TrEMBL record:
It comes from Novosphingobium cyanobacteriorum. This is Zincin-like metallopeptidase domain-containing protein. Pfam families: ArdcN, MPTase-PolyVal. Residues 151-275 form the Polyvalent protein metallopeptidase domain. InterPro entries: Antirestriction_ArdC, ArdC_N, MPTase-PolyVal. Residues 8-127 form the N-terminal domain.
Length: 295
């Protein structure tokens, strides 16, 4: 893949994300908000593995724009391997496949600095289950609300991050490595509480002894805006896995303009942010004794 083709992929995906954010800005609804149902977690129909990073966001946007009610995706050939056929005239959704270039392997993305291992991107076309014929999805076990809440509580407790309840503000305090949360009674519902709790938990993954992100950005700065997107994307992914809705928050109004500014200025910014969010989610999964980490 030539440099121009890679740039086109980054730009195309970023433009779709920017358009989705702008479309929902009036109601603070971002493309990563969802109702917590099983379909909100994009999974490959063949491997049954969850998609990762920026690809999750791309597939969420495509599903929202086209009204797809399934979270199953696969390439044209993969659907054929399952005995299904993509309907004529259906349009694919582009995701990015990252490949490792080993020493000595010649790729369009490799420089002349000695052939070190590096990553390069290739575009990959996938179709949703709603776009194919001849496929019957397996039944999905759905946990009760009580079971989902219990799982979320256990998941967060396993993180071992100090959390204090009290006051009227939710925030992560890096100097003390501590999360502060208002009492549960101050939230309108369970989804709002867990959305805020895991959002602050994602910020906490940026601590030096965890994922080591730069948390020094001041409100209004590009660095601060990108840390907020990192926490939002990670939270949306975790809540989708836990079956809990991720609703818009009023404070998004303060961030939307800065998010758009950064994304429009750098077509690769969303990929960097999504990668950091995925790293935070992976760290959280790594603290779970019994819950398998998504691949």
């Amino acid at each position: 893949m030539r440099n121009s083709e890679r740039t086109d992929i980054y730009t195309r995906v970023t433009n779709e994300i920017v358009a989705a954010i702008e479309a929902g800005a009036g109601e603070w609804r971002m493309p990563w908000h969802h109702d917590g149902s099983a379909i909100t977690r994009p999974i490959n129909a063949v491997s049954r593995k969850a998609y990762r990073g920026a690809n999750i966001l791309s597939l969420w946007i495509a599903a929202q724009a086209n009204g797809y009610t399934s979270g199953l995706w696969a390439s044209y050939r993969q659907w054929q391997s399952l005995g299904a056929q993509v309907r004529k005239g259906e349009h694919a959704t582009t995701i990015v496949f990252w490949k490792i270039s080993q020493r000595g392997e010649q790729t369009d993305d490799q420089d002349d600095s000695g052939g070190h291992v590096r990553m390069f991107a290739r575009g990959y076309s996938v179709f949703n289950e709603a776009q194919v014929e001849g496929y019957v999805a397996p039944a999905i076990a759905v946990l009760s609300e009580e079971e989902r809440v219990a799982r979320a509580e256990e998941f967060f407790a396993n993180l071992g991050i100090a959390t204090i309840h009290g006051g009227n503000e939710a925030y992560y305090l890096p100097s003390k490595d501590r999360i502060h949360m208002p009492p549960f009674s101050q939230f309108k519902d369970q989804a709002a509480y867990y959305g805020t709790l895991f959002h602050e938990g994602l910020h906490a993954t940026g601590a030096p002894h965890r994922c080591d992100r730069d948390l020094s950005g001041r409100f209004g700065s590009d660095r601060y805006a990108m840390e907020e997107v990192t926490a939002e994307l990670g939270t949306a992914q975790l809540l989708a896995e836990l079956g809990i809705a991720h609703h818009p928050r009023p404070d998004h109004a303060a961030y939307i303009a800065s998010w758009l500014k950064v994304l429009k200025a750098d077509a690769r910014a969303i990929f960097t942010v999504a990668s950091k969010a995925q790293a935070g989610v992976d760290w959280m999964h790594g603290q779970q004794p019994d819950l398998a980490q998504a691949a």
